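Below is how a single chain appears once it has passed through the pipeline. First comes the sequence as given, then the structure the pipeline wrote out for it. We keep one example in the README because the format questions we get most often are answered faster by looking than by reading.
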Amino acid sequence: MWVLLAVLVVVGGFALRLNSMLVVAVAGIVAGLIGGISPVKIIETFGTGFANSRSVTVFLVVLPVIGMIERYGLMQQARVLVTKLTKMTAGRLLAAYLGIRQVTAAVGLMAIGGPAQAVRPIIAPMAEASAERKHGKLTERMREKVRSYASSADTVGLFFGEDVFMAVGSILLITGFVDTTYGLKLEALSIAVWAIPTAICAFTIHGARMLRLDRSLAAMAADAPAAAVTPATPSIDGPGGAADSSGVATGDAEGEKR
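Resulting structure:
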């Protein structure tokens, strides 16, 4: 029962907004000490866990490569490429990426996309360039909307596409838990097959949202000029005259006429 004090360490650390990795590590040490595990065994357990899941840190090798190709103009080249596709709009581009992301995830290629590898350096700049070609200069709100839709295309495509791949961890977890707990014999292929209708529905619904993005951007672009011409400061009226938005003092002009 006392081992559950480690949960309080996690809750307290997150409430104080401390580093999450440090909080979890301290909670693990606390749980081990309360459970009667020696400090050497705790450190050994940490090392074994890291060695068994070291593939999680492979993304650290990819990040310098992404930064290097961005430094040498990957975003600019993506913008140039999309400007040559005259029929391509931001919504159509993101709907196409949603489909590509979902299909590649369904065949096990989960690492082919992602926010760091594809969305930020390639997909988002291409979508912004498509929107700028159709709607002119984007406001900050429009730009953030395009970026958020680009990120959602990647997330939704991966989430609903990977379940169709029968060797993904979530399906293996389901089959292992059900087989062990209920004594059944689930086939991973059966679960993957039943995930196909869900993936189709996800693509249809989110793809329609992507295509509606163009109309949303058009409405936001129509409102942008009206907001831009709104005067920053109201006109100042007084007994000696009024200063209009063009900076002409009408009271002084009348005084000169007299």
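The longest helix spans residues 196-228.

See the next section for the split statistics.
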